[in-house]
Known about the structure:
The structure holds two protein chains of two kinds. Chain A is built from 21 helices and four strands. Chain A has helices at residues 10-27, 30-54, 80-106, 111-114, 117-133, 137-155, 161-192, 197-203, 208-225, 234-240, 243-267, 275-298, 302-317, 320-324, 336-369, 380-383, 385-399, 405-420, 426-448, 462-477, 482-489, and strands at residues 61-64, 75-78, 325-327, 499-501. Chain B contains three helices and two strands.
Amino acid sequence: xxxxxxxxxxxxxxxxxxxxxxxxxxxxxxxxxxxxxxxxxxxxxxxxxxxxxxxxxxxxxxxxxxxxxxxxxxxxxxxxxxxxxxxxxxxxxxxxxxxxxxxxxxxxxxxxxxxxxxxxxxxxxxxxxxxxxxxxxxxxxxxxxxxxxxxxxxxxxxxxxxxxxxxxxxxxxxxxxxxxxxxxxxxxxxxxxxxxxxxxxxxxxxxxxxxxxxxxxxxxxxxxxxxxxxxxxxxxxxxxxxxxxxxxxxxxxxxxxxxxxxxxxxxxxxxxxxxxxxxxxxxxxxxxxxxxxxxxxxxxxxxxxxxxxxxxxxxxxxxxxxxxxxxxxxxxxxxxxxxxxxxxxxxxxxxxxxxxxxxxxxxxxxxxxxxxxxxxxxxxxxxxxxxxxxxxxxxxxxxxxxxxxxxxxxxxxxxxxxxxxxxxxxxxxxxxxxxxxxxxxxxxxxxxxxxxxxxxxxxxxxxxxxxxxxxxxxxxxxxxxxxxxxxxxxxxxxxxxxxxxxxxxxxxxx
Amino acid sequence: xxxxxxxxxxxxxxxxxxxxxxxxxxxxxxxxxxxxxxxxxxxxxxxxxxxxxxxxxxxxxxxxxxxxxxxxxxxxxxxxxxxxxxxxxxxxxxxxxxxxxxxxxxxxxxxxxxxx
Lengths: 510, 116
């Protein structure tokens, strides 16, 4: 029995606990689901915290499921990069779960429908942890589908027509994305004969097959990560969902597929990459930063502002790829790669916390005033001061003002951009921040403006406001443990290491 | 698994193995489905288009199982196809359920179309 709880089984527990939680909450009667669901959310957080503690100093652990080693079996691998994502998922997930428990038990009129949140959310959590742990390309396809279907299930939870239409659009985009991924995996398997990521990386040669597989996998995952111009499904889906669901979808679900792109980029596809590939992906990210921010400025409903802002913030993440994909020979002085990595990981964390806080705060506004139109938050600071504070703090992190996590992210990215000599990304990062400041200050201006006549306000449970505030504070203080987080990442072989390739457009070398 | 037949593609030309033909068809199906997903506006047509994309991906997996043709086919891609079909069927069932609810609630059967 004690063998079950060995620390080497930790990766399996990280997936198993939420799966059990999902099944148990599905089988329970409606009135018990909320409490038990929250219990399982707490139980899932435990192994995640344990993983963070265990990997301090940058080690990694590998777990062969059922004792079957690859290539026959499927391996789970927990390393520093995965641990950072798992920890973020756990912290955001737990706070959103507490919010959801209060929200669905006090605010929502239809408890039977709302209680379906718990099985779907716990399965989604299991899928996300699976994404961060899987060492097997096909297993990744399965967890991508688990996450995709659970995410759409959550998005249509309210059952209203706009949510259903947005959900179907989301589902079709998700299916197309995962099928493109599967097609790429098929080509990779045809070329290498293995599915284990490290084995496939060792067996893969550069050539047209590897390039086609790379393009298919990248496109499929870009649809799911909502990178411009494949982001069309995101704003309607994220803005029409219930508040805790919106928080989960934009803070956590988008990061899962970004993590897979990052992992495959540095571990498998370094043979088929070219300088141009990094530049193209970076250009899409830079365009997303500008386009998403401009769209956010034009929106009339707060949830749509925040949803479009996700498109922009995701764009920043993709600036990592041009910075770590360098021509051969430049690598000797490529110490900026560490800045680029740190910046992107901090962008993941800061956006995760800040965006979750934002959606939860707007959720409180919707409960209080019945809608999320811009004019309804006039004099918000006098009526819901805690929520206004949460919006302000989350906004500070999104813009990238010091001393927040968002500041550290953008500062590190800028540092890497200057050190690498790829100066053309600078205006995008700066103008993006300026535009972000534009829509954040638009919201804050309204929140501080006096209202001519007070609209009637519904009372909001204090717990909901506190959850939003906690996440917003996390988005700021995340900048403090920077040393510990980079320490975690150093265990990953690719960290600080640029992918090298020949600049003359020829074949890449390892 | 029957011993693969050879498809004659022309006099004196290199013969095309069955699995290569499968591969070409798979790419064709994938592209047809992809085009249809973007071009069709009707909900049902879009869902069918995703199924065609899926068929392309699965056929590609089957065609690459033919690595040592005369002896035995690689069972791993077959296992992947079975898993993939189960996943794809559930996703399609979910999509159909959503489309049906949308039609029942709003009478809408197209994206962006006016309710009929």
